[in-house]
Write a structure and sequence with these properties.
The chain is an all-alpha fold and 393 residues long. Keywords: Coiled coil.
Length: 393
Amino acid sequence: MKIYSRCHRSWGSVATSKRFFCNSQIAQDYEQIIPSMDEYKKASKFFKKGDYNLAATYYKDLLNITRLPLQKHQWCGIKDGWSDSYRNSKLLLKIYDRLAYSYLYTKKEDASDLFEFCNDLFNPDISFPLQTKHLLTKFVMDDATSAHKGFDALQKDENLSQEYRSVAKNNLAVMKFHKFQESLREANHDFNKLDEKAIFEGEQILTLLKESIKGFENTNQRSEEDAKTLQSLLDVNSYGPEEFYNNSGKAQFFDVVKHPLSGITLTNICEEMLLQGPRMDKKHTSFWYVAGLKFHEKYETGFLARHLTLLAIFYHAQERTMIAEGLLTRALELTKGKGDIHEAFTFKIYGHILRSKPSRVNESEKFTTRATEIEQQLVPWTSKLVQMHIPVV
């Protein structure tokens, strides 16, 4: 099989180092060729393992070998030079999307060039995952204003699917959460010192998170009973379903949330309630923690450790330290040896809780040191990304 240059000259076989795809004549050929290439296989392998530095290296090698550009200026007149076959190619979108994801978890300065190029290349209706990574890169690179505006526009975009708008709502809520957290820190955690703008931002967080879950669960495709329960559960005018508090036997409030993406948002609701602290009735916080715990135990065990750690913080604040330690011990069992942000978070919180006990200072220091060791292997903003929905093609 021959691979052709942009000017349609035969350039060589697949085995040569000067392979590249530049016109619609071979748009279908490269869909078959690229997956068989060593660079693609290695990139996919390291991406799956979570080694994003190596994944990015091999994805870039793949693009260099095939002479597919990484930056807008590498080809003039991109929109004219690329056929619709390229702009709608799911394989090509997957390659650029996974490179973008790898950039998000590494310190790549050329990420902005990649996003500028991809925004021009791919049709908007299939590139939402890339747009999400673009905005999250802005967010973690201290351009929160642009990221905020971007997700605000996406969550209102009726041309997007309901699921994508729900992703945008969750991510916008998380950005507002971190902004509110910073405002509260500047006010020395005194809510009375917050200005009206900060208070307004804070009030929007729970609303957006509930709307996000409502979109994921899609009440239009649920039974009448489920739809009614979800309506009560996700009522933006209340912190929790009053029907549940009036009759604690109504287990349907814990069974009605089922969509795989709802779990992260449920945990984000719990974290938001923790941030509100004494302003939040404990019965509301308890309800959402139980709802999230049951969800993660049943549907999404990979996020269970983080939820358990946040629940431990809740119990520790009520001076129920033995329960908190039991939850943290279970979380450490789930994350043992993974070296990820969940394990680091659990070690950090456990170390913090033990610090107040003179007899366990050494144990506290051990946990804190281990948390720091893990965090040093991760990009600094991993703790923010863990709250986000990051769709992958």
